[in-house]
TrEMBL record:
The name this protein goes by in its record: UPF0346 protein FD02_GL001228
Organism: Lacticaseibacillus nasuensis JCM 17158
Pfam families from the UniProt entry: YozE_SAM_like
NCBIfam families noted in UniProt: PRK13672.1
Domain of life: Bacteria
Family to which this protein belongs: Belongs to the UPF0346 family.
InterPro entries hit by this protein: UPF0346, YozE_SAM-like, YozE_SAM-like_sf
Ranges of residues in domain YozE SAM-like: 4-69
Length: 79
């Protein structure tokens, strides 16, 4: 079963990890307006550029999105 980007991102949450990806995941969790059902790169990118002051660099999103794509292509087996 395919995950949305948000569902994948939530697997990266870790309150003990203060790295960029874990922090992005935590802040997306707290963002009540985050588009949870959207997985399209352009739509997510547009939302984040306009609404996610908590994301210091779009490079973080780009990296997580690449991981998400790899995860989906391997059926969830990619680590």
């Amino acid at each position: 079963m395919a995950q949305t980007f948000y569902q994948y991102l939530m697997t990266q949450r870790n309150p003990n990890d203060h790295g960029e990806i874990a922090t992005f995941a935590q802040n997306a969790f707290l963002d009540l307006s985050f588009p949870k059902q959207i997985s399209d790169f352009d739509d997510l990118s547009r939302y984040l550029e306009l609404n996610a002051g908590y994301l210091p660099s779009m490079d973080i999103f780009d990296a997580v999105y690449r991981e998400y794509q790899a995860h989906e292509q391997t059926g969830g087996e990619h680590e």
